[in-house]
Each structure stands twice: as C-alpha cells, then as structure tokens.
Records
---
Amino acid sequence: MSARKPYIRPMTGWWRRDPFFVEYMVHEGTAFFVLAYALELLAGVLCLASGESTWNAYRAFSGSAVMLLINFAILLMMFYHGYTWFKIMPRTLPPIIISGQRLNAPIITIAGIVVAVLASSLLLAVIYFLARGV
Amino acid sequence: MKVNLKRTNEPIFWLLFGAGGMLSALVGAMLVFITCFAVPLGILPAEAFSYASMHGFTQYFMGKAFLFAIIVLFLWHAVHRIFHSLHDVGIHAGPLARWLCYGLAFMGTVATAGALLAMV
C-alpha cells in the first residue's frame, strides 16, 4: 500500500498568475507609500516642535534630489490608491437602493473621483490663499 | 451549547482603516503635491513653509487637528492594510505581526499628539 500523497496547490507567487491579482497586490502595496508619507509628516512635526534650526534642516533634507524622487513615487502611488479606493468602493459599500434600483457601480466610482477632485481643489485653494495672505 | 460572546475589537481598527483610506483617497495626492512640490514649482512662496508660518499654523486648534488627523489616520490605514496583506504573501499574521503593525501606529499617534501639544 502506497502512502497517500495529496496534491497541495503551491501558493508561492500565486498573485503573478493573473493580471487581476497583480493589480490587487499593487493597490494593497500603496499602503507602504501612505505609511512612508505619514512618517515623513510625523518627522516634520517632530522637527517643527524641536525648534527653528531642526525645522530648517528638515526642509533642506526634504528638498534634496533623493527625497524629491521618493516623494514623486509617493505622489504617483497616492493617485493610484485614490483611483483603486473609488474603483472598489461599489463592493465595499452596502448596496444603495434608489427608487427600487440598486445604484450601479460606475456611478459610485465616478462620484467618488469627482468628490476627490473637488476636495483636493478646495484644499489647494485654501492653502494657496493662506500662503499668499489673502 | 457554549456561545462565544467575546467582543472583537476589529471594528475599531477597521473604522480607522476606512477613515484613513477615504481621507488619503480624497486629498492624499494633493497633500503630497502641496507639501513636497508646490514650493519647488513656484506655486507657493517658500515662506509658506517657513518656521514662522508653520509654527503659527500649529497655534490654531484647527491647524493641530488637521495635522493630527492626517498623520494618525494615514498611519492606522497603512498598518491595517499591511497587516491584513501579510497572509497574501505567505506570512502567518500572528500576535507578533499585530503588535508590530498596530504598535507602530500607536507610537506614531502618541508622538504626533505629544509634538503638537508641546507647541503652545
């Protein structure tokens, strides 16, 4: 009698098998960039609290070529995070029923992106006018 | 029959994850643009991020609340997502991983609050 040798489906690199899984892993990976940006801001707040010279050192550091490149990668991944967040939103929200019809997915996604564009524009406008002292 | 009535604390972490995810989806990219690229590109004057103006910003309650919400919610969003993705890359997400992920966010929360409250 031979020993039973059940087939176990190998799971290493499972997400490389399908473009859908690759996309899933990339949008989960945006979390590292959100984390990096949060830590960058936290470092800024800590430097600000410790005085003017530390704050100026922080600003010089974040203006360096390497940090601009890293921040550009963070910027792109933030965009991608926002896009996928609203793309997935129809599946993460409870069903929204309007006059007996379930609100369809593209409408939720587009509404989310429109709100993001409006909120971002408003933020830029507020900071712009604050900085210009209007 | 024994019924497990122990409450789970998952909704709290999920709520922080959701709030951070929504906030970063709404204004995350614009925030990075403003804080990192607006001055080099000449959209904002360099004085916008001078010590005097940034320190002044933290003197307002709204300024403090804004910075606190951004940093803390982004942190909790990211660690929750990373923790739950460990399984996908074949790492068993046990108590150690939980402590490391949520511990980082917790320490970040305390540090942010401490620094903001120190600036009176």
Note: Chain B has a mean pLDDT of 92.
---
Amino acid sequence: MKVKASYLPYLLILPAFAYLMFFVGYPLIQALYLAFTENGAFSLATVNRTISDPRFWDALKYTIGLAAVIVPTQVGLALVLALVMNRAFKGKDLALYALIIPLTISDVAAGLIWYAMLSPSGFLNKLFLNIGLIDNPVYFFGYQFRHMEFLAIVLAELWRATAIVFVIILAGLQMISPEYLEAAEVFGADYWTKLRKIVIPLLKPSIQSALIIRTLFAMQVFGIVWILAGRDIPILAGEGFYQLTEIKDYGVASIYALTIAALSIVLGAMYIKFMKAEYLEVKE
Amino acid sequence: MNEKTKFMLKQIAFYTFVFTVVAWIVVPLIVVTLYAFSSKLDYYDPSKIIPFHYTKQWVYTLLFTLRALDAIKNSIIVAVLTIIISFALGIPAGYAIAKFIFPAKDTIKLSIVALRMFPIPVMAIPLVVLYIRLNLIDTLLGVALAHTAMALPFVVLITSSIFAGVSTELEEAAMVFGLTRLGAFLRITLPLALPGLAAAAMFTFVMSWNEVFVASVLTLQHRTLPAQILSIMAGASGGAAPDYYKFAAAFIMMLPAMLFVFFARKYLITMWGITLK
C-alpha cells in the first residue's frame, strides 16, 4: 500500500526542483540578456559580431562534423559489442568490467591517454616503426596536421564514450523476452533473420535514447578537443570558453552557449519525432 | 569442414574479437601508466616501445611544483561539497518519487530526466556574471553549487530507484510499532539503502572529479584538478608541457576512477542503467 496523495511529496521534491529550475532558468535568461542587449537596450550588435567571425561558422561546422562521424560509429560499434557480450562465455564478467572502465575516465584524461598512444614518440608510432610498418613517425598533432588531429579526436572519443552507448544497448537487449526469439526459431528463422526482424526493431527505443544522449553530449564536446587540438579544431564549447576566459566578451560567449542550447533542442526534438515515426511503421 | 571444426573456428573468432576489444580499452591505460613513470631517454628512444628505466620525477614535479596536489585537495573539497548538497536536496526528492503516488508525478520525473541533458557550457558561461556579483567567483563553494546542479538529476533518479528497492512493508511495520514516518525512514529505510547510497556518492564524486568546463570557467586561483591540468597542458600543438608531464597528469586523474570501478563494480551496471534510461 502506498500513502495517499498529500502535500508531503511536493514538499520533499520542491527544494531539488527549485534548485534545478534556478540553475537552468537563470543562465538561460542571463545568456539571452547578454546576447541581445547593449547598454540596457535591445541590440543585435553582439550577434553581428559573432556571425561575422568565420571561426563561429568553423566551430559550428566542426562540432556537427565531429558528431556526424563519431556518433553513428559509436552506435554501430556498441551494437556489435552488445550483441557479442549478451552471450554467456568464460571471462565475461572481466571483459565487461574492462569495457566500462572508460565511463569513469574524464575527457581531459582520455585526451592525454590518447596523446600517449599517438604522439610522435608515442606507443603506436614506436610499435609500427619497430615492426616495420612505417619508416617515419606519423604526425597527429600541430596545426599543419589538422586532419590527423580530427582523426585523433575521433579515436579518443570512440575509446571514451562508446561504453555509454554499449551499456544502454546491452540493457535494452537484456529486456527482450527470449520467448520471441524461441518462437522465431520454431518457424525456422536463422540468426540474421532474428536479428533483423526481432532484435533490432525491439532495440529501437534503446538505440534512440543512446543516439539522443550521445548527440547532445557531442554538441558540448570540450576537454578532449582542447587537449588534443586546442583551437586548431574550433568547436562551439571551446570557442565560447576562449571568448569568455581570454577575450572576456561575455556577449559572444553567451551566443556560443545559446547555439549549443538551440542545437540540443532541435536535435532532441528531431530524434524523438523521426524515431517514433519509424517505430510505428515497424509495428504495423 | 565438419560441424566440430566449424564450431571451433567460430569460438576462436569470437574470443579473438572479445580479446581485441578488451585490449583496445586496456592497452592505452597500461601505456599511459608506464609512460607516466618512464625516464626521458626511454620515452624519446624510438626503439623502446615499452620503457625500461623508471622515475617518479614527473609525478612529483606535477604534484608539488605545478601545484597538482593543491588542485587535488580542491577537487576533493568540491566533490565532497557536491555530494553533501546534492544528497541533502536529492534524497528527499528521490524518496518522494519512490514511495508516494501523487498528481503530476510523471511530469516532474520526466522534467528531471530532461534536465540531466542540459548542456554544461550553457549553464557555466552566464553563471560567471552572477558569481562575480555574488563574490562566488573563484571559490570552491561556487564550483560545488554548479556541480550540484549537474549531479542533482542523477542523484534524484538513482536514490529513487534505491529507495524503491527497499520494501515499503518494513517501513510500515516500523510505523505500526510507533515510529514516526521520519523515524521509520532514519532507522529502517536509510540503513537498508546505505550500500546503494554509498555507490551513488562515489558516482557523484567521479562526476565532479572529472568535470572540467564549469571548473575552468568559474575559477582562476582555486582550480580543481582537471581545470589545473587543462590550463597547464591545453593544446598539444601549443605544447606548453613536455609529453611525460601529460602522461603523469593522465595517470593522476584516472586513479580515483579506477578505484571506483573496483569498489562499486557490483552496482556499476545497474546504476548506469538507471541514469541512462
């Protein structure tokens, strides 16, 4: 039996809810104020200053570009990993723990860890030099190697954040009732048919939430890029950080923040709409 | 090829795949640890993939000369403050969601889930203005208050699921025998929920320990470890710090996280399951 409704639960929730509302609401209003006013009056001067800077468009381009490369790869990789790890095998627990270690490692540390792997005197360069795969070290860092920096960020992000997607999809897999699969087997379905017709459709909600979470976090990527590439690869959070801490232009920094917020809202809404439509289609 | 060899080959392929993936995760961790203690000569020697000579010099310089030890202290203070504030606010809310039925409960729960997605830079950048006005800028309390805003949705969701796992009958029985609701909560539910809450506290600790954007924006002198590391190391191209300091920094930063995996491994998957759903 549960206690019937009274004012007590609201009283218990109120402090936490008010706290969150303040820390979400205040910054949004303050950001709008900083972005759209000058000397207390409405003005688009700050907006013009931001969008006339090519770095703003570069940051937008690279933030979306990184997400477009990283997120789908992560989801594909995590799906394969989850399907493999959903079986019972010897040493499964140990493998599982190893796979989720990156969840606890910060983006700054992950950037530095991959710097150890990819630097000119790093592990991979020395390994490939010694087994004769390459004659000279491959350079990943520095402005003239920007494409390689992009690759380094992708590698580090795949290493760090695939685990989040993996855990979500694995949880989804474990919720699928074995009866569906047994029924399919009775009718003679092989592994791939079961995967395509049963497992993937039932995994849609998990894949959807993984996509939303990863894409939203990709819009605010910061530490890993800042460590591996600095401003060679401009990104929204990094440029906002730079404007705030170096230039002290709070208005422009706020516009970067608002751009991240706007992207997050649009992407979240798009995913929910798009994925729902497809989900219903499968059900028909 | 008969069925048996086919099965064998499948097994081998399977284990090779699992091994590769595990190696992909674990090898960088081992490499960075070895490099953090590698002598300079061994690191720059192209023929030595794994260093043979080791030194504690880089970790020591980082801790004492480059003030990482102070930053570690700051990080611990911020994380502990974050745990205290977010649990003080989050436990009542989590308890209410777990044990009561009330109108608008789903809406409230859903908005807390949504708030978890609120981008950190969007919170941090405008907050600077308020913090300057309130003299909270460059204070550890200021960082902890912002980290609480980041951690609170997780704390509410995790604690509500922990409390939901503690049987309501026990609490009711205690109330039949004369305890108040608060007494029953403190004497029955809370002790039973303690292991889960300890794991949740570790989760909050790691979240705060790892957070870099808020900490970098809101502090200048009193930096937490990631903020301090970022300001020393930022931009590999700028290359302010020699490489081996970077590895020492990575090693120091990942230690508590690894300990967390070890101590909380029983709760780990469930907890992430809750926070990610």
Note: Residues 3-54 of chain B form one domain.
---
Amino acid sequence: MGNRVAIVGAGMTKFVRRAQETGQELAFYATKMALDSCGMKLDQIDGVVLGSAPDTFDGVHMKGEYLSPGAGAWGKPYMRCYVGGGTGVFAVAHGWYHVASGVFDTCLVVCEEKMSSYQPHAQGAFLTIFDHTTERPLKPNLLWIFALEMNRYMTTYGLRKEDIALVAVKNKNNALDHPAAQLGGKVTLDDILSSEVLAWPVQRLDVSPVSDGAVAVILANETVARRVTDKPVWIEGVGWSLDTAYWTNRDLCYPRYVEEAARMAYKMAGVTDPRHQIHIAEPYDPFDYKELHHMEGLLLCGRGEAPQLTVDGVTQRDGELPVCPSGGLLGVGNPIAAAGLMKVAELFWQLRGEAGKRQVARKVKRGVAQAWGDLMQVGTVVVVGI
Amino acid sequence: MAQVKKLKREKHQAVTPGRPGGQEIMKGDKQRLECGLQGTGLSDEELRQGTVLTTRWKADAKYGWDAGVAIGRYLAGLKEGKILGVRCYKCHRVMVPPRLFCEWCYRNIDEWVELKDTGIVNTFSLCYVTWDVKRIKEPQIPAVIELDGATKGMGIMHLLGEVDPKKVHIGMKVKAVWKEPAQREGAITDIRYWKPV
Ligand SMILES: [Zn+2]
C-alpha cells in the first residue's frame, strides 16, 4: 500500500464555545503546536491538507483558501477536503495519500472550524443539506434527521433512553481530564434524562456542543519519521465510503457506509478480527446514540450490542475496549472537521502514552478513529498502530 | 478589539471547573512548547455587551432550481393527487422519491408506478424547537413514511398531523391528507400531512 506513513506530531487549540481568535489564528496555534511537538519547522513540510466544513459557516467563499495562511500553506502545494462531518478523519486519509504515494515526504494536515460565526445558530447553515424540491418546502430542522435515526435505532433493538444516555455520561466525564475540553463535567444519568427535550428522543445533553477550534497533525514517510521522533504512530489503514443521498430509503438503524469504510481500512491494516485487534476506539459521537451506531458499524461488536458494552463498562477508560477516552465530541466539543481530527490526535497521544490524566489503563497498540457526516451518508475511518 | 483582549478568562473557565493546565497532553519528543494550549471562548454575556464585532448581512441569493425529469413528473402526479414511484426490473425495487436511474444497478429505470397514499411510520420525532433553536409548545412531528406499493424500507420524509403526540409510534398506519385539488400547485406540500388511519 505504498510507502509507510507515520503521524509524528500533533497539536490542538482549546475547543471553546465562541472563539475570540479567528479561524486562521486557531489553525496557526494548532499547527505551531504540532510542529513544536516534533521539533519541525514549516519549511520541512512538503504539502498541506486542510479540512473544514461548509463555507456557509464562515460566510466566506472558498474558505479553505482564506484559512490557508494560518494553516501554514503559504507557497506550498495545498488542498482542501470536505465531506461534511466526516472531514476530520478524511483529511488524514487525504494526507496519507500524498505521502504514501511518494509525492511528498511530509504533509501537514490541519482541520479548523468556527461554528460560532453563523448567526443565530450554526444549525441554519446545515438546512441546505435537505433536497430543495422534495424536502425543504416542509421547512425541515436539522435535528429531525438525527432524532429520526435515533428513534429507529432505539425501536429496532428495543433500547431505552437510559441505555443510550450512559454514553453521554461516560464521555462528558472523560472530558473532565482533557485540558482542551469545552464541556467536561460531572454529569449523571439523571441529568441527561431530565434535560430538555429538543426533538424526541434527542434531549439537550444527548447532543454535543457547538464549538470553535482547530487540530493539526504532521505526517511523514518512514525516513523522516525515524529522524524526528522515537515514537512514530503508523497509519496502518484508511477507508471511506458513501451511502445514497436518498436517505429516507436507507436502513436508519445501521450505518452501512461506516462498515464499508471500516472494512477498507481494516483490510489495508491487516485487521481480520477488529473485536480483538483494535485496542482503543474514537468513533464519532456528536450524539450519544452515534457512538453506539458507529461501534457497530466499525465491527467492534454485533448489531444492537453496543449499548450493553457501555452498560458493562467495557468502553470505560479502564475497560477492555476504551471508547472515546478523550471525552469525544460530547465532552471535548464539536468544531465539525476539527473534532474528527481530534480523534486521530487522541489516538496518537494514547498510543505514545502521552495522554496524561486521560491515559487508558490498558496497554494499547492499535486504535481506530472514525467520523461521519453530511446527509448521514459518509463514513471515514483511520487505523493507527505502533 | 482592545476591549475583548481585556476580558477575564475566569468566566470561561468556570464553565469547566477543574480544567488542568495545557501542557500535559502535548508532551512532544523535544518538549518545545512555545505557546501552550490556546483558544479563548466568549460568553453569552460578552456577546450581549457588544464587545464582539457582529455583522449582519442578508445574502440576497435566489435560486431557480430545475425539478428535473423524474421529480418533475412526481410533482405533476402530486398535483393530481397521485404518488408516483419507479421500478427497476433488475433489482425489482419500486423506489420513491422517483429517479430516472437505479443507483444500485446503474441503469435506466424501467417503469413508472402509482403508489398508494397510505403507508406506515418508519420512524418519527417530536420536535420542540425551530431550526434556530427557538422553543415551540406543540411539537412538529416529522416522520419517514414507508409507502404502500413501494419496496419495503422505501420512505419519504413528511409531517404527521391530527394525532396525539403521545400516541405516535413506529409501525403506525397513516394516510395522506391532501390539499383541495384547486389549491395544489405540484409541490410536496400538496400533501398537508399524514394522519393515522
Ligand atoms: Zn436496480
């Protein structure tokens, strides 16, 4: 599968509700931290990939180009990629291609999002994902599709809200130990279940917060990686897949597109038995049910089995399969594209044993990060290992 | 923006008590952290006080969308009080919303079929907020409705009405409530909503 590619450095900003910093500044801080973390300078970077969600958020046409100076792209081959919420993990796959192909020796991958720019609420920017002729005349609300999916998932497997809310409890509490987290907190099951109903079955605390933030990672081929770090984290596999845009024709209780992306990444990584060969997972969790959905799509358990694993504590930081030890989007925050890349950065720190208070109890050698998005149809997966 | 610079950070930190310092997660090989963990959040109050530059700009963007061949015919059907789907002879699916091609088999569809204006609720939500998160008392009830006559699992998004929110359930049988023929304009809203049978 081409040249071996390693992640050699990572950095991020705090995820905050409304950043005083501009998108360019956030991108700069994350990038600078990533470079500093492995003692590299920008002139050692051959190319730059930037991931960022819709231009609508910022109200800037071609916002990738607009953000590029902050992302260290001045005078360099530069490419923006965007597959909605799936972007953060897709951007790593993009960067991987550049280095695996041998075109670049090193590649900087930066993901930035400011969701606060759009007034009054970032949800408005999403409404154009609905079909203009057959759906938008019904005046849809973005929350609908998640609520519809969650209800279908609950009903198919006979789940109660309690079974799902445990994910939010776990992740928000995990985020207490993340210095960059926006929404870490001591949250109980009761808090989640008694929080305001937004769009049943989605309640306020089932949802990740609207955030601003940036994350950067540095990719390098084996020669450079060995030179700049003693602890490279290898990208063992990448995968991505799209389901149909006819979302009302899909089986909403199972993310087939995630399974397809996972199978592609696992095949590349030589993972034949994900339940045993994956030691830590950072699935995309903008809603608590999505972590469960995605664990199933990532083949980490059977269909409908993820809630029980959560109840049994398997997915806790000290459990057999730690899931979202970072605190996830539910706890750290959800600056769309940056949130996905945060998951890859978390695996980088966890696999190197540098996650501080968040360090998982188990010795972990291989992890999977995943993101999801657009009209609930994109799955992006990266497998990393040491 | 000088005022913004002076804002205290305690307020932000109070939202996430016990946040430790930024150094520990980023221990790199060379320990060359020059800027630490950056990012400064602003509170609602700060926004209200007007310490943040806010520009309101209304995009005057108008779009003339083509409904397309398949959806065009679907809309014409709605005007006549009919729901049209399409069939692919290869995978045998009857699909709605209709399309000119089967995306599975990647070939032209073979035939148009008229579906019933009844179906079952595949999934639904009781939504108490508007798109910009304003509260509403009576919930809107969006649903995916699997239409009778289409292949199992083939649904469209629409709204439910004339129903007690407490009684809505997945699997519930529903029927379209149409606008009067004279009021129909060839739009998805020619069906007002779906009510329990
Ligand atoms: Zn077909």
Note: Chain A has one domain: 5-118+209-385.
---
Amino acid sequence: MAEVKLDCMYETCPIPLLKAHKKLQTMKVGDILIMETNHTCSITNVIEWAKKQGYDADYIEIREGEWEIYIEKVK
Amino acid sequence: MASNRIEELKKRRQREIKKKKSQVPVGVTFLIFALIIYAIFLATDFKSSMFWIIGLLFGIVLQRARFCFAASFRDPILVGNTSILKAVIIGLIIMTIGFGIIQFISIGDSQDFDIENIPGYISKVGMHTVIGAILFGTGMVIAGGCVSGTLIRIGEGFILQIVVLVGLIIGSLISAKYIQFWDKCIISKTHVVYIPRYIGFSKAIIGQSILLLLIYFLADLYHKRNNIMK
C-alpha cells in the first residue's frame, strides 16, 4: 500500500502519460501513484487514460499552475 | 468517482497547501486591455475588430475544451484514445455544411464556375501536401502542440512553448522565403481538386458529410476496441 511519487514537471504531452504507464507496471496492486505536473493537458490526458484502464484517478491543484494527479492501481 | 483512499490523500494534501493568490485582478487587467484594443480597432479598422473578437472566442473555446490538434492525431496511435479525434471530425462535418452553405449561396448549384470566385481557401493538392503534413505532424508531436495548442499554452504560462513559438516563427520565415522554389518544383505542376465541380454542390456536401460520419463511427469503434495500451 505504498505511495509512489513521480516527477513530471516541465514535461509536455505525452511524456507524463508514458512515464505513468511505465511506473504503474512496476507497482503493486493497491499502491497509489502521485504525479506532479504543470502541464494542464496532462491532467485530462492521464485521468481519461487511467479511467479507461479501470484505475481510480483524481487530481488537485497544489500551487498556481501545478497539479498532483493520483492514480490508484486497483487491479 | 475516485476511491476512498484517493479522497483521503486529497484531503491530507489540501491541508498542507497554502492558500492560492487570487488571479482575478490579472484577468480583469487583461480583459480591459482586450477591450481597449477592440475599441481601437472599432475606430480604425472594422474588419480587424471582428477578427479580434473571433480570435478571442476561439482562444477561450480551445483553452477551456483542451482542444489539442496534436493530441487528436497522436493519441489514437499512442494510446488508442480517439475522443479528441472525434471532436475534430465533428468540427469537419460542421465546417463542410457551413462552408457548403456559404459557397452555395455565392455560386448556386451549377457545375460551371470559376474556382477563383469561391469564398474560402481552396488550394492545390499534391506531393507538397504530403511532405508538409509529415513535417508538420512530426514537429507538432515533438513540440507538444500545433500552432493553436502552442499559443494557448503560452497563455496558460507554460514557458517551454515559447521556445516552440520561436521555432514556429523561424520556420514560417524560412518557408516564406523558399515558397517560390517549391512552387516551381512541385506546386505549379499540381491541380486544385474541388469535388463540387465534378458532381455538383448538394451531392458533394452530402457525400462528404456521410464519409466523415463513417470515419467518426470507425474512430468510435477503434476507441472501444483499443482499451489497453500495449
């Protein structure tokens, strides 16, 4: 039940999504991935992708123009 | 709906976050600037004032909708997601009908017209289209946005895209310098393909709309089939 941080600052689409995909493969079921990004398109991109994969996902804005995306590996 | 653990994490992080500065004053300042520019255009150049308003509205729609042309062509191949591609296809259907109506009003349903007189941007198609498309497509995926995408991200404050904008301007200048060379090599040997000339307006518009609808449903099918990234 670990929380894994992933730094995606200053990365444009589709790098954050590819990074998340790689990271999620190494994680165990039940772990939560915390992605930090400042690219707004990644939010929709990553969350839509994660939900399509069947993962739980959500995000919050942590600073001006910086967001954290949470993805729970449920399966 | 996110799971309980994500909700918990969100609440925990929310407590750690400092209160954000209000961005309303900046927004109001920019709105006033936009209105001043509009007023100047109204007084001097009415046509530009219309372009200014249409441009601002375009910007708002593109930014709010996250409408990214780069993603629309990249995501189907990369992650099997065609939701933005479908939006582009819907846009093309609306454009087909809208421009069809405008062009129909100006020339009528005859097959005998001069292409120069048709409103719209109808240009020659050939190998230069293919070369340009490959160059632009490769560039926009590496740069993380096409022209409109780059501009909205600069507006959002994503500094990296300013580098892209500089590249974009350099590229445009180079292409403007060598356009005559390409014109002599390829473009002058190609022709305008304008379907209404061969089958008439109504058939062309209906035919193109049906074709686009077909592509839409194929994209939808592709979206459902490609559920897992390989």
Note: DSSP finds ten helices and no strands in chain B.
